[in-house]
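Researcher: Here's a chain I'd like modeled. Treat it as a single chain, no partners, no ligands.
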Amino acid sequence: MSGRIDIETIEKIRQRIRVCDYLSVAQLYLKDNFLLERPLIPDDIKPRLLGHWGTCHGINVAYANFRSYFSDDPNFSFVLGPGHGFPALQANLFIDGDLLRVDPKATLDKNGISYICKCFSWPDGFPSHASPYTPGIITEGGELGYALANAYGMVMGHSEKTIAVLIGDGELETATAIDSLNLRDLLSGSNNGRILPILHLNGYKISAPSIYARKSERELNELIRGFGFTPITVDGDDTEKFQLALAKDIKNPFYIMKTDKGYGGPNRYHEAHQIPLKNPKVNEEELRAVEDWLKSYGAIEILNNLKGAAL
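Model: Modeled as a single isolated chain. Structure tokens:
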């Protein structure tokens, strides 16, 4: 594990987030023209739009930062709670070549990009939620609340393991998730590995405000301290400070990662939970908005050079 932070590392993390955000949006919307080699037309848009954009950016931020910081640790794992944000998870598995190990069609090139984007939420393709088809998935992506308990089970008797666990702020309202915080006391012995919880505080659960996002910072921090953790708040979109937070030598850290719900999407649908623009196939204004949204990531050049690149 390396705690060294430099400009090149920060830029790689930022590029990775941009690429994975782009791939997340492309999976939700496109059935063709995946690298925007020409202006979008209605036939490029899937006939049925299904999936969850709102949590995707936060997933990509957490995955990129932890993956980079623990890149030298072969015993590090990342556990995702909000599996409904599957486009983001699949984008990261694709970029790292993890998907290719189990699916020869997921090649790190234009064909592979076309494959994962077109087949997302598509007949005989990939489901809209994480599922057992996905490497490492043990519960269906709509089953929220189990991630932390599963992670603690994974480190039992494995002192060498470190597992980061991303928990949605709506997910933490489930009885299973909040009660799993007590496992820190039960599994704190030296024979067990280390758990790094990350609360994704984006403010909303489906269409309602989340309880934890409406608590004061002091109230939320005291709740977390009550379970024996040390709360550390990070701005998800400040990559350098995120890396510095991970480098701090703190006992039992509990990261509170703040990103806006649906960050990066069209402004008027900024806090969307599922699909922000629902009718781009029949609405020219929305079609151009999707195109502008995709272009805003500046990811095409990175994706064109994807093969053999270490993002």
